[in-house]
Design a protein that fits this description.
By secondary structure, the chain is mostly helical. It contains 13 helices and no strands. It is 64% helix and 0% strand. Helix 3 packs antiparallel against helix 4. The longest helix is centred in the C-terminal third of the chain and has 32 residues. The radius of gyration is 21 Å and the shape is globular. It binds protoporphyrin IX containing FE (HEM). Protoporphyrin IX containing FE (HEM) binds next to helix 3, helix 11 and helix 12.
Length: 255
């Protein structure tokens, strides 16, 4: 523990000077502040998510399931808050957004390192995304590290194997078959059963966040191209198919 500085107060402890001076609109238009604040709060929540995600992975790896569920439940609640916050951004009308959209240049949420790191650490490891960051940059290093370290998905598969289940070639079919045995006898495999449902909570919330993002984007810019250079809403719609644990969705048909 670090010693508490004498006379510390609320603003000192939270470094509010730094935090509250980091909102610097580039235009003089009223709604740019909301745009900045929404992005910054989401980046802060993502920071906390990554923090809890690392803990969850290490707890699953150590077979400390009850503690892992607690960390994963927090992640799910953060995801719910992040999804809900799109409703605040929806108060930004297309007319008001278009007035300052130019100041964003080519910057886009697509460049959020933390978002990609969350995907990687959950288990959606798509190495190509690393290439958008320059060699040696902090973002690239963080993503390379996330690629190299075990994800929540890998830790969960380790737990399944550790309990003696045959995961075969780790294809969706093979994994669905292994999880199916867990779901057919939840009393016997309660820890794994509970783990799987917690994983699905996170996967479900990830899709919900993506859905609300694309809906908000369609509401604000319609089918215009993104500032990051993609086709915009059609690109985002395609990401709705991504699943962290396709086998856990697949097994439901077989039950
Ligand atoms: C007016 C509000 C917003 C609009 C119009 C918008 C639009 C877009 C578009 C068009 C893309 C696709 C990439 C591109 O071409 O730029 C994108 C990607 C993305 N945006 Fe937003 N966005 C908005 C707000 C936000 C906010 C508040 C966040 C929170 C951090 C965010 C996070 C992301 C992320 C993480 C991606 C990458 C998604 C992926 O590749 O799966 N966006 N956004």
């Amino acid at each position: 523990m670090t010693a508490t500085p004498a006379g510390i107060n609320y603003a000192d402890y939270l470094k509010l000077d730094q935090l509250l001076s980091a909102q610097q609109p580039l235009s003089d238009l009223h709604d740019e502040m909301l745009f900045i604040v929404i992005h910054q709060t989401k980046e802060l929540w993502m920071k906390e998510m990554l923090y809890d995600l690392r803990l969850a992975v290490s707890l699953v790896e150590a077979d400390r399931f009850a503690e892992a569920y607690k960390a994963m439940a927090r992640i799910s609640r953060i995801q719910a808050v992040m999804t809900l916050s799109w409703d605040v951004l929806s108060t930004l009308t297309p007319v008001d957004y278009l007035k300052f959209r130019d100041v964003l240049g080519t910057s886009s949420g697509f460049q959020s390192e933390q978002f990609r790191e969350i995907e990687f650490r959950l288990g959606l490891k798509e190495p190509n995304f690393v290439n958008q960051y320059p060699d040696g940059s902090a973002e690239r290093k963080a993503l390379e590290q996330a690629l190299a370290e075990p994800s929540l998905r890998e830790a969960a598969l380790g737990a399944l194997e550790g309990a003696g289940f045959d995961v075969g070639d780790k294809s969706t079919e093979a994994l669905a078959g292994a999880w199916l045995q867990v779901y057919r006898d939840p009393d016997r495999w309660f820890e794994l059963y509970e783990l799987a449902e917690k994983l699905l909570d996170i996967d479900d919330a990830m899709v919900a966040w993506r859905q609300k993002h694309v809906l908000t984007v369609e509401r604000i810019i319609g089918l215009k191209r993104g500032t990051g250079g993609s086709a915009g809403a059609p690109y985002l719609r395609a990401t709705l198919e991504k699943r962290l644990f396709p086998e856990l969705w697949a097994l439901r048909t077989e039950l």
